[in-house]
Design goal:
single chain; globular; mainly alpha; 3 helices
């Protein structure tokens, strides 16, 4: 598990901060994990913005 995932799980990182961190770490992560992190960030954004909820 990467530091972005850990901090998202602990709610110590906003989705915007997570996206910035992912931009910095993208080259160090495999494509499958990048996709997983992007999904976690999208889920966090939906929870933060009630208008985006289904």
């Amino acid at each position: 598990m990467c530091i972005i995932c850990i901090d998202l799980a602990k709610q110590k990182l906003t989705s915007a901060e997570g996206r910035r961190a992912l931009g910095e770490m993208r080259g160090q992560l495999d494509a499958a994990h990048v996709a997983e992190v992007e999904q976690k960030l999208a889920d966090a954004e939906k929870l933060a913005d009630p208008a985006k909820r289904p």
